[in-house]
Design brief:
Helix content: 25-40%
Order of helices and strands: EEHHEHEHEHE
Strand order of the largest sheet: 2-1-6-3
Distance between the termini: 6 Å
Number of domains: 2
Shape: globular
Largest sheet: 4 strands, antiparallel
Oligomer: single chain
């Protein structure tokens, strides 16, 4: 069964957390009550990506910590109490979830991170990596990176042990662990600038998963 992420971005504006990406208010009133046919225009910070590597880094979803050298930022934190109330209302209406009770149904691993926490992890930067790789993929990585082009080199973690595929070679390199993680940080940086948000601690993502 596939797993998808639902993710929102909030900024701390006017002394409260307000959604700034996935739902766009059609008026300027924070108290605006959503109806079935108006109130929001749907967009997506991650453009509907299904990246299990990203899911694992964010919340330990679809991964095995015993076989991963690069562990999640944190374990599940839950949904923050001070989240945007319109996101809460829309989520409860769509999925009939009661946030005052334990998570139910197929929705799981709700959590959140500030931009500062994402950046401090280092997972969005070029970083030292190690693993088993295809020689052709490694050559492509070296060529692209030398030419200033981004490339995420596929690899099997060394903690998985030596793979059965005899064509794979063990390498160390400097590269991107997960480009969707990198892109997420950069999109948040753009929103921070556009919304004139003062610090990396005043912009955050809130997310959960469903199967």
């Amino acid at each position: 069964m596939g797993c998808d992420i639902t993710l929102f971005c909030e900024g701390y504006l006017w002394r409260k957390w307000i959604n700034i990406d996935s739902y766009y208010r059609s008026d300027d009133w924070a108290e605006y009550m959503v109806t079935e046919d108006q109130g929001f225009i749907r967009t997506s910070l991650l453009n509907g990506v299904r990246d299990y590597g990203l899911f694992f880094l964010l919340a330990g979803v679809r991964g095995d910590g015993d076989k991963e050298s690069y562990l999640p930022l944190d374990f599940v934190r839950g949904i923050p109490d001070d989240m945007d109330q319109l996101i809460r209302k829309r989520y409860e209406e769509d999925y009939d979830i009661d946030f005052d009770k334990e998570e139910n149904g197929d929705y799981h691993h709700a959590s959140y991170f500030t931009l500062k926490e994402l950046k401090d992890s280092g997972y969005g930067d070029i970083m030292p990596l190690q693993g088993w790789v295809e020689p052709d993929d490694y050559a492509k990585h070296e060529e692209w990176m030398a030419n200033g082009r981004r490339y995420q080199l596929p690899f099997i973690d060394v903690r998985c042990g030596q793979p059965d595929n005899e064509n794979l070679i063990l390498k160390e390199w400097n590269g991107y662990l997960n480009l969707n993680f990198t892109d997420l940080i950069e999109e948040m940086e753009k929103m921070k600038k556009e919304r004139m948000i003062r610090s990396d601690e005043e912009i955050r993502i809130i997310f959960w998963f469903d199967n």
